[in-house]
Design a protein that fits this description.
single chain, about 40% helix, 7 strands, about 350 residues, alpha/beta, seven-stranded parallel beta sheet, about 10% strand
Length: about 350
């Protein structure tokens, strides 16, 4: 087995299980440390033990590399594969099978941990028909948000990666920050070049209810907005602790989503579970479309769709109302209709 691929796959399964970041990075660093070596050179360094002295290679990763060089599937990887045969969630299996793509994911161009190429490759492996790259916009400096210039450069990379595949589309997008007045944090010219625009609130989450409502509605009414991301901003678990929901008038917000043909995101991250079920039910009542998205920041997190499908099914969201069940041609017809 290829040692680099074995190490990267271990990283995938650990990300899927929400393992500590340092554990995942250990395997990715080891992969980066050996990927420039030829097969013969790697075998020689394993046999004479000199690989142990390479920065980024520890006892455990050395053992895994040695097993792979010997043509074996490393035992640790075999165990992770066995654990990974089961879905992450027990519910929503039938709906999950209908999901074709994902409109919200991040790469190392902003605050993701892997390259666009790695994210695309994982999406193909996990059976996606399409994946949208939606790195952050410039105001979110803590997440290394993309300026218009960097976003333009990224579009070229996305096009190059997309051209490498048949039967899979890597689409361009952005998770654009919603300013306090509802403006979107990117130029109109750049937003008009994208396949999908996810608009999310990331700052001043505790602002006045009426002001937050106006802020969100202004963003929803923007002709470039396709998806309203993690609408309450809540956190229910995880390393960042808990965070209460933002206060806004959901009836006004969801009426605007229906009016302006903007999908309400069902964010699949386990620490978000956003929107809560009562708001999914309200959005259903208002006739909204939905998008089940992973908000993945690493390849292994692309499997978070399991969680989103479980929540959508539990709330009886019809598959026909979920844009990520649509084929890519229909999705693009819908998303581009506003541009």
């Amino acid at each position: 087995m290829d040692a680099v691929e074995a190490l990267k796959e271990i990283g995938f399964w650990l990300e899927r299980e929400l393992a500590k970041t340092y554990r995942v990075e250990a395997f990715r660093r080891a992969a980066a440390a050996i990927e420039h070596l030829s097969d013969d050179e790697l075998r020689r360094q394993v046999q004479d033990g000199s690989l142990k002295r390479v920065k980024g290679i520890g006892d455990r990763t050395f053992g895994i590399i040695a097993e792979a060089v010997a043509g074996e599937v490393p035992g640790y990887l075999a165990d992770l594969r066995e654990r990974g045969t089961a879905p992450l969630a027990t519910g929503g299996v039938k709906l999950r099978a209908k999901l074709r793509g994902d409109l919200h994911s991040h790469s190392n161009w902003s605050d993701g941990g892997s390259s666009i190429q790695e994210m695309a490759r994982a999406a193909v492996w996990r059976g996606r028909e399409y994946q949208v790259m939606t790195d952050h916009s410039p105001r979110l400096t803590i997440a290394n948000g993309l300026t218009a210039e960097r976003l333009a450069e990224q579009l070229d990379v996305i096009a190059e990666v997309d051209a490498e595949y048949d039967g899979f589309r890597l689409l361009s997008g952005i998770e654009v920050d919603i300013h306090e007045n509802g403006d979107l944090d990117q130029t109109d010219a750049m937003l008009g070049r994208l396949d999908v625009v996810v608009a999310s609130v990331h700052s001043k989450l505790k602002m006045d209810r009426d002001l937050m409502t106006r802020r969100m509605v202004n963003a929803i009414a923007n002709p470039h907005t396709n998806v309203l991301g993690h609408c309450t901003g809540r956190l229910v678990m995880g390393s960042r602790g808990g965070r209460d929901e933002s206060r806004f008038d959901p009836e006004i917000v969801f009426a605007a989503c229906e009016r302006f043909d903007v999908a309400v995101e069902i964010n699949s991250r386990p620490e978000r579970q956003d929107p809560p079920s009562r708001l999914i039910q309200l959005a259903l009542d208002y006739g909204c479309l939905f998008a089940i998205n992973t908000d993945a920041h690493a390849p292994g997190q692309l499997d978070f769709l399991d969680y989103g499908a479980e929540r959508a099914a539990a709330n009886k969201v019809p598959a026909s109302r979920i844009v990520t069940t649509w084929p890519v041609e229909r999705l693009l017809e819908w998303s581009n209709a506003k541009h």
